[in-house]
């Protein structure tokens, strides 16, 4: 088992980084702590030549036209790029748009991509509907596949190897450096949904070419923003991504960007508390007789635990658990309905605790070999972990009554 220090050390360092990063330049008349809000569609210029010169700066996070990003969006992009360790970032309208925009940017008709079987379900649907309609073939691979298995699935026209680590429902941690070696050996880019690992996993240090974030989750942190981000580290990738985003009309509204910038300042302290609470609750659940398995990367029996220890500097607030097979799906759903402090809802990363059933709700090409009971996912918020444990305890009592 890991220690509290291990699951929180990345978050504890993040607040200082963000304070240095986002502190505005002081001026003689004084400077507010938070950046001023800028809303606008049309941007006025003194002369036509000024307008033309500014229009040539589309790769420079410059204020050209509202639909190409506002100053507050550009500041958010700079902050995300620093946290991810990349050079440039494009903020887009949602976490799903952060997955789909680079797929459209880096795949052409007649090409092939590999997706992990644990991939976010809307990304799977996009591949099976939109990409397929545009002539892109998709193959799924087991999330813990070996280098040999992955190499055997690569085709001469494979251009993207996609990763999501850990999977947001089943929590397998992937060997990202190995994925990068396989992708690059076959002339493909490694694209990663790094939403769970934002701030605690350095994608570009581990060979990722394109890192994806749902800013809806940890960065905004208050369940009132829909936005996403795509970060790269190579100029050629940035130019292709940026041009594709402009042509798709992809951006986020200034209010969402401002709220996310503000949320970034408290993300480290929020997630340090939430990660510690999540570990406390997961350890309590592990010792419950109703629970078969904990799906948390910090637990030794979670697939990829050793990789998590090697590559991550902490853990998040989201994990799952599997009930023993003596309990039915309907009994678990009755248990979920009985919970008082856990809201029932999609998404995660906010200050509030959430619960969501994961069995009977995900599509998988590679089914688990072992027979297991129903499963659910917990997002642990800022509430007292003792209160959350008490709520789960009464829920487990309900589970036993209805089985």
UniProtKB/TrEMBL annotation:
Its cofactor is pyridoxal 5'-phosphate. Gene3D superfamilies: Aspartate Aminotransferase, domain 1 (3.90.1150.10), Type I PLP-dependent aspartate aminotransferase-like (Major domain) (3.40.640.10). Keywords: Lyase, Pyridoxal phosphate. This is Cystathionine beta-lyase. PANTHER family: CYSTATHIONINE BETA-LYASE-RELATED. It catalyses: L,L-cystathionine + H2O = L-homocysteine + pyruvate + NH4(+). Belongs to the trans-sulfuration enzymes family. InterPro entries: Cys/Met-Metab_PyrdxlP-dep_enz, Cys_b_lyase_bac, PyrdxlP-dep_Trfase, PyrdxlP-dep_Trfase_major, PyrdxlP-dep_Trfase_small. It comes from the Bacteria. Signal peptide: none annotated. It holds the Pfam family Cys_Met_Meta_PP. It comes from Acetobacter malorum DSM 14337.
């Amino acid at each position: 088992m890991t220690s509290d220090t291990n699951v929180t050390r990345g978050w504890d360092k993040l607040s200082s980084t963000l304070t240095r990063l986002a502190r505005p330049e002081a001026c003689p008349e004084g400077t507010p702590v938070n950046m001023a809000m800028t809303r606008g569609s049309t941007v006025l210029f003194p002369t036509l030549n000024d307008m033309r010169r500014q229009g040539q700066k589309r790769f420079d996070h410059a204020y050209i036209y509202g639909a190409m990003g506002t100053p507050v969006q550009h500041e958010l992009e700079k902050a995300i790029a620093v946290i991810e360790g990349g050079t440039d970032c494009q903020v887009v309208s949602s976490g799903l748009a952060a997955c789909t925009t680079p797929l459209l940017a880096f795949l052409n008709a007649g090409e092939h991509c590999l997706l992990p079987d644990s991939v976010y379900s809307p990304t799977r649907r996009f591949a099976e509907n939109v990409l397929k309609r545009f002539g892109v073939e998709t193959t799924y691979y087991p999330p813990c596949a070996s280098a040999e298995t992955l190499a055997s699935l690569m085709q001469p026209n494979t251009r993207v190897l996609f990763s999501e680590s850990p999977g947001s429902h089943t929590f397998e941690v992937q060997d990202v450096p190995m994925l990068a070696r396989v992708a690059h050996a076959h002339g493909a880019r490694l694209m990663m949904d790094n939403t769970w690992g934002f701030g605690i996993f350095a994608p570009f240090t581990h060979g990722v070419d394109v890192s994806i974030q749902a800013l809806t989750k940890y960065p905004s942190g208050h369940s009132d923003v829909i936005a996403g981000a795509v970060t790269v580290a190579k100029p050629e990738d940035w130019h292709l991504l940026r041009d594709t985003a402009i042509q798709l009309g992809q951006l986020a509204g200034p209010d969402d960007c401002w709220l996310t910038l503000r949320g970034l300042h408290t993300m480290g302290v929020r997630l340090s508390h939430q990660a510690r609470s999540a570990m406390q609750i997961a350890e309590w659940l592990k010792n419950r007789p109703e629970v078969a398995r904990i799906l948390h990367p910090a637990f030794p029996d979670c697939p990829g635990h050793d990789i998590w220890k090697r590559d991550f500097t902490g853990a998040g607030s989201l994990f799952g658990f599997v009930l023993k097979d003596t309990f039915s799906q309907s009994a678990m759903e009755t248990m979920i309905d009985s919970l008082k402090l856990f809201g029932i809802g999609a998404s995660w990363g906010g200050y509030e605790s959430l619960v969501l059933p994961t069995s009977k709700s995900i599509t998988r090409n590679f089914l688990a070999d072992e027979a297991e009971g129903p499963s659910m996912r917990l997002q642990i918020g800022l509430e007292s972990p003792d209160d959350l444990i008490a709520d789960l305890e009464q829920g487990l009592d309900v589970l036993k009554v209805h089985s």
